[in-house]
Write a structure and sequence with these properties.
The chain is mainly alpha-helical. The protein contains nine helices and three strands, in the order αββαααααααβα. β1 and β2 form a beta hairpin. α3 crosses α5. The N terminus is likely disordered. The protein binds zinc ion. The site of zinc ion has 5 residues, from α3 and α5.
Length: 293
């Protein structure tokens, strides 16, 4: 299992507390409904189990640390990556690698938006782990769309996908191929940060999100207005909302710090070069694919 402190859900939403929320957003005091208690269940890795189809005995491989952290950037446990994927041919390993870093880059896009708009990330951070756990265990419906959207970006930027292996929020990436679903999803994620919770009365569906709901979901106008005035949130175009370009975040995909955890310096350089090579592909849009509906 990954050490707690390296799990992405904890790190990416850690209590950076750099900014207070701006005035004008009525952060209500009411709590989300309490999640059902899960007793006597063994701990398990929460965050996507690194790669999929690799069982439950895997450490976290990729994670993101938000801006303001001393170790801000995308992290990769290269030792674990090597251990899990050593049997795979090089091209598949590269695609898995690209998938991982692309997914984490989406967290940076959202993180950038929060920082630029001075949105306090702490409130959602407090809820993240418990909610994610509940969604994984199916004791809660799905509300964490940030992960679905990160998966979409990873699929967009790579050539392979593992939908059948993924569970919960990770399995909901496909509808985001629609630019309108992407925009609606972006609004939801932005509002979840602004409100500091995942389940928002009058906004999120009472029974959570599904592929079918996402395809037709429309954020009511009064909610849209709370986001539309924010910076770094394009309102139209193919990538409206949290745009999916390599430079969408404050730091572009190539410049965001990339921390490779492995004792072998040569191997760290190797993975760093993989990231550089991938960035060139992204610039040339070579890895872009369209998966039919
Ligand atoms: Zn993620």
């Amino acid at each position: 299992m990954a050490p707690q402190q390296t799990r992405q859900q904890r790190t990416s939403k850690s209590k950076v507390g750099l900014f207070k929320p701006k005035g004008g957003f009525d952060l209500e005091e009411e709590d989300e409904e309490p999640l059902r208690e899960e007793k006597n269940l063994p701990p398990e890795p929460l965050f996507g189990r690194g790669g999929c189809c690799s069982g439950d005995s895997q450490k976290q491989i990729f994670w993101y640390r938000p801006m303001g952290s001393t170790d801000f950037g995308i992290h990769m446990n290269a030792e674990e990556f090597e251990r899990v994927y050593r049997e795979n041919p090089p091209d598949i390993k590269k695609d898995i690698f690209r998938h991982g870093v692309s997914h984490e880059y989406f967290h940076h896009i959202v993180d950038s938006w929060c920082v630029i708009n001075e949105v306090n990330r702490d409130n959602l951070a407090k809820r993240y782990e418990k909610q994610m756990h509940a969604e994984e265990r199916k004791t809660s419906e799905i509300y964490i769309l940030e992960e679905s959207m990160g998966e979409y970006l990873a699929h967009k930027w790579t050539r392979r996908y593992w939908e059948d292996c993924r569970r919960g929020t990770y399995s909901l990436w496909r509808p985001f191929y629609s630019s309108s679903v992407w925009f609606q999803g972006s609004l939801i994620v932005a509002l979840q940060y602004l409100k500091g919770k995942y389940k928002i009365s009058g906004l999120t569906p009472p029974n959570g999100f599904s592929k079918e709901i996402l395809e037709h979901f429309e954020v009511p106008k009064k909610w849209t207005e709370k986001v539309s005035s924010c910076k770094l949130f394009p309102l139209d175009g193919n990538d409206a909302g949290f745009a999916t370009h390599h430079e969408s975040g404050v730091w572009n995909f190539d410049n965001i710090p990339f921390h490779i955890h492995h004792p072998d310096r040569e191997l760290r350089k190797w993975y760093s070069s993989w990231r550089g090579e991938f960035y060139q592909l992204v610039l040339r849009k070579e890895p872009l694919i369209r998966i039919s509906e």
